[in-house]
């Protein structure tokens, strides 16, 4: 294999994780409609940040982005987003569970709702470093709990030393006074 072909292969391998994003057609060929169990549709699928959900639906339906309470209770009044264009693409941008329902009366209660757990992308770092946290200083020694009890008696020795120097100094002064 020539070096150009090898380089091209490496480039291809390096580029694959970055462009690997999936568009999921909600309900597959059935689309977003009544009579589909979207809990079953979700089962076995892995959704990641960067993937896209595509809702394809008729005029009697629409898509509301709701929270878990809205999903559980089929309440669309607190929806953060509403779509009714018949072909709605939702980019999965954040890790966590996203909840959708059809706000048409009775449809959510009939099962037309969707909860999707969005996982981080495999290539993304596990946790970005926080700018406020400082790394541990290598100059700081670990605390030693044994130091206080094992220390010898430096104050006593130091005072003895001071007394010795004092005595020597007094002796020199006295001798100096005697000699002169
Ligand atoms: Cu509907």
Automatic annotation (TrEMBL):
The chain crosses the membrane at residues 162-179. InterPro entries: Cupredoxin, Phytocyanin-like, Phytocyanin_dom. PROSITE patterns: PHYTOCYANIN. Gene3D superfamilies: Cupredoxins - blue copper proteins. It holds the Pfam family Cu_bind_like. Residues 121-155 are annotated as: Disordered. Residues 122-155 have a biased composition (Pro residues). CDD domains: Phytocyanin. Residues 1-21 form the signal peptide. Keywords: Membrane, Signal, Transmembrane, Transmembrane helix. Residues 22-120 form the Phytocyanin domain. This is Uclacyanin-3-like isoform X2.
